[in-house]
Amino acid sequence: MATECRRKQKSNKRLVRLFVALLVVTAIGFAAGMTIGKITTPSKTVTITETVEVPALVTDKLVETKDVFLFDVPLSDSLQRYLYEICADENVPVTLAYAMIEHESRFNPEAVSSTDDCGLMQINVVNHEWLEEDYRCADMLDPYQNVFCGVKIIGSYLERYEGDLQKALMAYNMGDYGARKAWENGVTETSYTKAILSLMGEYEEVLNNATGD
Q1: pTM score, two decimals?
Q2: By CB neighbour count within 10 A (0-12 exposed, 13-18 middle, 19+ buried), where does 195 fall?
Q3: Cβ contacts of residue 205 below 8 Å, gap of 6+?
Q4: Average model confidence (pLDDT) for the chain?
């Protein structure tokens, strides 16, 4: 009986050792599988196929915050500061830009006229293609793109006509060709130019009173 018990004990020990060995092999296999999985599983990558650009303002005449007077008009503070910066860059009186925006659209960035003039500064559709090509401005109902382009246009006319506000405004409103034809017929001002310059005077008065100039 003692011999039979020892045999059973030996047999049981063999079974235990076999069971432990199987557990070790299984654990090693699982760990190896996890390591291989981490090595062979491809990482997620994101490919950018299209880049959207917005107009970049490049200037050495950026307006400091202390130099910006925020008018009581329905334009955001950030848009008004942006307007100051563009006007400084293009040598356009900021009061002229405000006057144009008020007269053209009554500060409605989504305004579209029956003649396809769009946005705050009512930029006509005939200008959209070259503005997109030159400045990557594709959405004239975006207030930032619109004022960027509007100030660029009036600034170019002011430069061409040596700061003559009447001529620049007539060209903006009628197109350069239409304005030249009007001048040939002796027309040097219109109801449009009168309205804009009157509003400009009002903005200058408010600005002067606020700044003490």
Answers
A1: 0.70
A2: middle
A3: none
A4: 80
**C-alpha closest to that of 104 among 115, 116, 118, 93:** 118
Residue for token pair 């401005």: 137
Q: In this model, does residue 42 exceed pLDDT 50? A: no
Give the C-alpha separation, 196 to 20, whole Å.
94
Helices (DSSP H) in 41-127: which residue ranges?
Answer: 77-90, 94-105
Does domain 65-211 correspond to CATH entry 1.10.530.10? yes
- Which parts of the chain fold into alpha helices (H)? 2-40, 77-90, 94-105, 128-135, 143-160, 165-184, 191-211
DSSP structure class, residue 65: G
What are the pLDDT digits (tens) for 99-131?
999 999 999 999 999 999 999 999 999 999 999
Give the pLDDT confidence of 166-199 residue by residue, as tens digits: 999 999 999 999 999 999 999 999 999 999 999 9
Domain range summary for the chain, segments of one domain joined by + = 1-45, 65-211
**Residue 62 identity (one-letter amino acid):** L
DSSP, res 123: E
Q: Kind and range of the H or E element at 124? A: strand 123-124
Contacts of 9 (CB under 8 A, 6+ apart): none
